[in-house]
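Example complex used in Figure S2.
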Amino acid sequence: MILAVIIVSGIGAFLATVLVFAERVITNYGDVEIDINKGSKKFTVRGGGSLLETLTQQKIFVPSACGGRGTCAYCKVKVLEGGGALLPTEEPYMDKKERADNVRLACQVKVRNDIKIEIPEELFAIKEFTCTCEKIIDLTYDIKQYNLKLVEPQTIKYTPGQYIQLLSPPYEKSSEEVYRAYSISSDPADNTGIELIVRRVPDGIATTYLFDYLKEGQTVRINGPYGTFYLRDTNVPIVFIAGGSGIAPIKCMLHHMKNTKNTRQAVFFFGVRTTKDLFLIEEMKQFEKELHDFTFVPVVSQPEEDSGWTGVTGRVTDVAVEFLKKQGDVSNREGYLCGSPGMIDSAVKVLADLGIPEERHYYDKFA
Amino acid sequence: MKKSPQQKKLEDMLQPSKFSAEGFMGTDTRSVWEIIDADATELEKHGKTCAEVAERMQELTDIGKPALEEWVEVGAKLKVKVEDHRGAIPCPWPHHVRCVKRITTVVYKPTGRTIRWSDLNIHLIKEHGFFEGRGAAFRLEPRELIETIF
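Predicted assembly (517 residues):
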């Protein structure tokens, strides 16, 4: 009996040793070089990890939402050399052109040898930040404002209109870390913190964490900034259209206009469903006083009978079209839109109907 | 019977993940195929197919969409509201389908019964016959759904 136990234990120990040896020797890829954008950045790393995790370790943040499971297809990069053949796990996510251009999912490419890749230059500017949640403010029954103070690094540089990704850590209702995108709504004059405006998503992982679990004083991790939604440097009059929490990047742009004494004419149509969904009205009225030529038009589509609402009623896009038509030819304007895909689609149509060409429609679609 | 790698990946994707805190199986102890079979039998009892159910759901979502989160009356008995949220969620099946986080709420006015679904629900029913496991946040009971929307 004792002999049998000794023999079984011995075999077990032998197999474990073989496994450890195999891991160290057989799967040891040694040092490999990663060359990004034709030598623009090069570094040597220990091979064996996925390209996505290797880049993250080097503080290069390629967007990813699924944590390397190969399902979100956000982490597409061009692999010019050394990535091996396209894997069956990547095939469903690549169209013909992407295959021809050697586009790969960074999470599926294993770094086994020297590798040459191409990524958008702006990804080099993305940093990871540790913050303290300084203040949480209830704006409506389903929208909250979060003021995050940067701890490390202590300052952030972003273009008003851009967004960050916030890390929702594992908590009671979610066992995994997830990142979700939120627009920055703060005054860019203060580069030591950021403000976010977040609407609760029913059963959403990150918003449940933010609404029900995150407390003032706790640590929050973010990375960014991302995005190409920002105020173009022209003198053309502006039409802003936003719904609900879509006000966030527009608020940031308005702060920026005030800080830079921008004299551009601007009108902001802000749509909500009921008066209970209205928020930041006083702040917007203050912008009307402080900016050179800014008009704020809050629009409620279905005001409650007892709300006493005397403002503009209707669908925000209908109100915008009516308002702008009265101004004569508005085809020279730029449109900045932020909100749900439905609202954006409707607003894009409105701008086009008003003669504003598509190349001057800028939007941040919640998708 | 041994599971194929594809089957294993699917079962993994249906569990709580970075996209769905509670996963698509909820507290259901049946396999995904057992759930699909049982719900198909339930549909048959009511004389409907997955395609017909998904088509009607899509029709109601499409009616609500242009109203930008306002309630819309549909006939005498239904009212519909469609809300869009930031982000997208991929289908757990291994193909490249990603649905925006759009939630349709339908109220059957005579009883006040309220049912909600996401765009992903419509896709899962139409393409995979999957109504999700019991206890999942977006599980739809075929009988209740049919009685409400048809």
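The interface with chain A takes residues 13, 16-22, 65-71, 82-88, 90, 92, 94-96, 98, 100-103, 116, 137-138 of chain B (CB under 8 Å). Chain B has one domain: 5-149.
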